[in-house]
Amino acid sequence: MLRRRKNKTPPLPPLCPLTECMKLLGGAWTANLVWRLSGEPRRFSELRSDIPRISAKVLSARLCALEKNGVLTRHVVASSPPSVEYALTEMGRELIPVIEAIVQVGMKLQHRVEVRPRSVPGSAPRPRARATHRT
Amino acid sequence: MLRRRKNKTPPLPPLCPLTECMKLLGGAWTANLVWRLSGEPRRFSELRSDIPRISAKVLSARLCALEKNGVLTRHVVASSPPSVEYALTEMGRELIPVIEAIVQVGMKLQHRVEVRPRSVPGSAPRPRARATHRT
DNA sequence: GGGAGTGGTAACCGGAGGGAAACCACAATG
DNA sequence: CATTGTGGTTTCCCTCCGGTTACCACTCCC
Fold first, then answer.
1. Hey, are the CB atoms on B110 and A15 less than 8 Å from each other?
2. How many whole angstroms separate alpha carbon A70 and alpha carbon A51?
3. Sign of the C-alpha dihedral computed for residues A54, A65, A47 and A92 taken in this order
4. Rounded to an integer, what distance in angstroms lies between the CA atom of residue A47 and that of residue B43?
5. Per-residue confidence in pLDDT tens, chain B, 135 aa
6. Which of B21, B88, B91 is the best residue to mutate to test the A interface, defined by the most A CB atoms within 10 Å of its own CB?
7. What is the largest distance, in Å, between two alpha-carbon atoms of chain B?
């Protein structure tokens, strides 16, 4: 039966902090958005041109959600055409290390893409355990 | 018109590294999975019991995708009931700082949940710019 | 013989996510 | 007058994600 230390599950708190944080960053463009905001505060249309492929609907939805979660604040500037500035809150700024870590890995990834050592000739092509594999 | 320095977009490389990395971590349970694997290698059924709410289908899909992306390796152990061990590759291990940063923020988040200073009485209740706001 | 444990796959299916486009109200601008 | 730019909302629509369930093929153990 090959038991091998059955329940050696190290940490894993009951309410997963990872899941909690990923709820903030979930959804399309969210991480990009926080990244853009990590510098100076930006306005709606600036963000739209920063991330050209995001739609107004999704941008609006993300901004609402992020504000609701306390990640950013919206500040209305009463100018001739009233504009709105979005800025990270203190809590939002705590996400910056996460974003930067992701960007770091992303950049390493882009280097790997050039040299992709897939399917070394000497190794087995891909041993399946004993799965069904009908016909 | 209030021009304010039009295109001061700082970095944002053409092929976004953030998006590239998020493609690896996208999808339900993926980050959790990498987290579990960040310690010792684990088997399919171990992962299933580690993350009780993940379904076999999604677990299988994630493992396939992560293997395809070079994040982990599968190793078939030819034992009596053949078992499969999943382990992070070197590239997969580079994701660990990301996961840990996420977990760090997640834990801070859980502390904040207890004391949630939403809607400070002194500030405006929520000024909308001039949006439609029909009736 | 029957059940459990191994590691999956196949089919079904509902709901959410997200893209596209139209629309809004108003001021400034051409 | 028409257009542009401001910041969104709303509707339509379609895809794909992920949950559920069933099933497989095999071996070991009671």
1. yes
2. 22
3. negative
4. 43
5. 333 333 333 334 457 999 999 999 999 999 999 999 999 999 999 999 999 999 999 999 999 999 999 999 999 998 888 999 999 999 999 999 999 999 999 999 888 766 655 444 444 444 555 443 333
6. B21
7. 75
End-to-end CA distance of chain B: 28
Domain tally, chain A: 1
Range of the domain at A80: 29-111
A60 Cα distance to chain centroid? 17
Domain of residue B87, CATH code: 1.10.10.10
Residues of B in contact with A2 (CB under 8 A): 77, 79-81, 83
CB distance B92 to B66 below 8 Å: yes
